[in-house]
Design goal:
It is built from 17 helices and no strands. It is an all-alpha fold. α13 packs parallel to α15. The radius of gyration is 24 Å and the shape is globular.
Length: about 350
């Protein structure tokens, strides 16, 4: 009961601040308040607060509040009402999504029948912003949000939550989930996650990832990878894609879709412009290419080596990388020898 009381107080404080934002006359004041609310709900819950809330694991405040709003219909409707008045504020869609995703996707009447598509589209837009925020920040703050959407909506055995969405909203949600599945899914689980991915137009019972679904997912993944610029996020994405080795998933795609993915991966192996990707990304892209498209692996590396030789500025980088690897190997060998000499 104590934890529930704290959740109620937190929800009231969020509503109070957002109401202050609606009453503020200056745009700068509204921006500051909405920014503060976003920081509040995405902040990490401290150890003492977790104990009081009865939460056994590390989490963020939105993870604590989303189930509360899902159960408290009046509080959720009040939050939605206030957010609608602040739609011009950049943080409002992410705030609404982080707090109301469970309420809006669990209850088919949430948001009102006439305005449901508009509200769900706003929710999906906010989810997209949150997940891209993780990518840009090279972090996983919103992994719990993604996991709930994946387990309880997209890949749930009972697809009522997904299939009762307006068709346009359903397709948009699936596009967002497809885009970030390689980012949040461990490599060993990616094939299984994609195998259960619904087709965007398959609202009928049992319409799982057929050729259309696989094609949709890989097309979305290719487009998303093309937009990524952050090194650690790209490495995470490529490492997961390499986990599709030996998976039949790619075989379900159209040939043109597979070629687009192959071309995008190959572009990440190249040095220089237009993307100037780091060497670690070059290497990860080669591993993903070799895993997904093993034919031609040797010729690809030969061509890449030839291009590197044509760029003298790459010679110094290659020499430095080789020297770093040698020094690291020598350091490990020296540590091993030292440990062996001190042994019994």
């Amino acid at each position: 009961m104590k934890g529930e009381h704290i959740r109620e107080r937190l929800a009231r404080e969020i509503l109070r601040k957002l109401r202050l934002a609606t009453e503020a006359e200056e745009k700068d004041d509204r921006d500051i308040i909405c920014d503060e609310v976003f920081a509040d709900i995405t902040g990490a819950v401290g150890e003492q607060a977790r104990e009081q809330l009865g939460v056994p694991h590390e989490c963020r405040y939105f993870e604590v509040l989303a189930p509360y709003f899902s159960k408290k219909w009046d509080a959720a409707e009040g939050l939605l009402y206030v957010c609608r008045k602040l739609l011009s504020q950049p943080y409002i869609a992410p705030v609404l999504s982080a707090l109301l995703y469970q309420w809006m996707l669990t209850h088919k009447d949430a948001g009102g029948a006439e305005q449901r598509q508009k509200h769900v589209n706003l929710l999906v837009a906010g989810v997209r912003q949150l997940l891209w925020g993780d990518v840009h920040g090279e972090r996983t703050y919103f992994a719990a949000l993604y996991a709930w959407l994946a387990d309880e909506v997209v890949s749930a055995a009972n697809r009522a939550r997904l299939d009762t969405l307006p068709p346009q909203s359903r397709a948009k949600l699936l596009a967002v989930m497809a885009a970030f599945t390689p980012y949040y899914t461990p490599p060993e689980d990616l094939g299984r996650a994609l195998a259960g991915f619904p087709a965007p137009s398959g609202a009928a019972e049992g319409a799982r990832a057929d050729g259309e679904g696989a094609d949709f997912v890989i097309t979305t993944v290719t487009d998303t990878m093309h937009l990524m610029r952050e090194e650690q996020s790209l490495l995470r994405y490529l490492h997961a894609l390499a986990g599709l080795r030996d998976s039949p998933f790619l075989a379900r795609c159209k040939r043109t879709t597979r070629l687009r993915l192959q071309a995008e991966l190959y572009s990440l192996t190249q040095v220089g412009g237009p993307r100037y990707v780091p060497r670690a990304v070059n290497a990860a892209a080669f591993r993903a290419l070799d895993a997904l498209f093993p034919m031609g692996a040797l010729s690809r590396r030969a061509v890449s080596l030839a291009f590197r030789l044509m760029h003298p500025e790459e010679w110094l980088r290659a020499a430095a990388a080789a020297a770093h690897s040698c020094l690291r190997a020598l350091g490990l060998w020296s540590s091993y020898r030292s440990a062996s000499s001190q042994g019994p």
